[in-house]
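User: Can you fold this complex?
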Amino acid sequence: MTSLLDVENLRVTFPTRSGSFEAVRGISFSLGRERLGIVGESGSGKSMTGRAILKLIRKPGIVTADRMQMGGTDLLTASEREMRRIRGRHASMIMQDPKFSLNPVMTVGSQITEALLTHEKLSRAEARKRAVAMLDAVAIRDPERVMSLYPHEVSGGMGQRIMIAMMLIPNPEILIADEPTSALDVSVQLQVLEIMDKLVTDRGMGLIFISHDLNLVSNFCDRILIMYAGRIVEVCQAGKLHEAKHPYTIGLLNSVPDLEHPRPRLDALQRDPAWREAPSVSALT
Amino acid sequence: MSDTSLRAWLLADAPASRAQARAAAWYAGWLKLRGNTLAMAGLVVLVLLILAALLAPLLATQDPFVQDLGARLKPPGWEGHIFGTDSLGRDIWSRIVYGARISLYIVALVALVAPLLGLIIGTVAGYMGGIIDVALMRFTDIFLAFPRLILALAFVAALGAGIENAVLAISLTAWPPYARIARAETLTIRNSDFIHAIKLQGAGPLRIITRHVWPLCISSLVIRVTLDMAGIILTAAGLGFLGLGAQPPSPEWGAMVSEGRKYILDYWWVATIPGLAIFTISLAFNLLGDGLRDVLDPKEAGQ
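Assistant: Here's the predicted assembly.
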């Protein structure tokens, strides 16, 4: 399988007054045309991994890696100008909360077409047509009307779908979804996921799906990385999650209620300090 | 459409179209402003001033430049000179009316130039951060370290006297507060998710600043402008008084006060009338600015 993205020994470090803090500590993985899930608790470095790939770590954070290759580009040596071309065109990211990720004073239409107009040489009318088609693809009814709405005039689920449309319209090869449904209602979550799933498979993109919801990820992804304290502790095929061996993964699974096997008390996760020190599992294929 | 149904249309709870909603928002703002008596007083004075400036040729009883040395320093009311005459026998009322044009011209130009300058510098400093931020903000501090009139004086002295140069000088002294406001706004905006989102799509700093940061800064700048108008008038009058603004014989109010200064003990009206004009206009701008801030500032709207 040709891989879209190869990352070896990725580290994200934040220098602080009391020494440096490593948010991501030497993880390696590759991404093909598949759906790769990254799960872990808060602070395990999932989001940082996503942002590091696009080199969008805020200062003073530092990204280092032995290798970070996307398609033919070496991301480590890419200049900011080259990164701008890569973002959007080759890889883009869907963020958590549509309420904050759409510009409140721009109409939906102009936000969607903006990226298109910068990346491709298109006429305004052509871009508009593409944007309407894209909104239609994310199952928005009456896209012509939605184009002229402002973000406060759409619902959360619609906002997230607009966000997806906005990120998919330049046709990226890699899509990073950072908890795309956590700000949404449960009833809307599945709908948004279905749309995303369909678009990703249709276009043969690589998807990195970051979430803390194990069940969601196991239903939705092909391969799952389980992260703990900035390292990958285990790599599973999604269907074989229940065969997981690492005590952290088992602990995570046991802390989720299960309708089929009800238990009087859910397990609390016991963390073993040894996990923190154990070397990262490679997820290269 | 009759009067009552227009009102009902504007105050409808559920607007049927976007145009109606927008009109209703404007109307609600107007109602709020109308409830503020002092702001309305300011507005009335300013509307009268603007009308006076527009209709100056009709309102003026005489040519503001024609001298009549036989009728110099006549008191108010003397032979049709409502406000009397000055040291060259020119009709003060006519000069005041024509002077309104100059004052409004200066205010309008400065209110366009200074916020724009401040907006550019403030957003660039706030967005770029680091060394650029430090450099630009220290530059701003240097400007803030001078008293405004003194700095304007220095600029006019360097550029040469005249209305255009006075506008330029006042703008150059008025931008630092705008830059600070714009920077503060930018600092909160630059970390918001939608800026990250467009960065993810490959937007560069220029596009982010001009298309995404500017529109969000403008509301706070507009509020500041409305409060700043009086200061602009005063600075312009101050420059005129010192002989560095509009040049004689143009009827600039500050210059008129300065001219009357020599006769103030014996012929009080020559300096007092233009002085009162300056006072009235500044007060009106301040009152209206205060009322407008209450209406325009979205952060205080809910309170």
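The radius of gyration of chain A is 19 Å. Residues 186-203 of chain A form the longest helix (18 residues).
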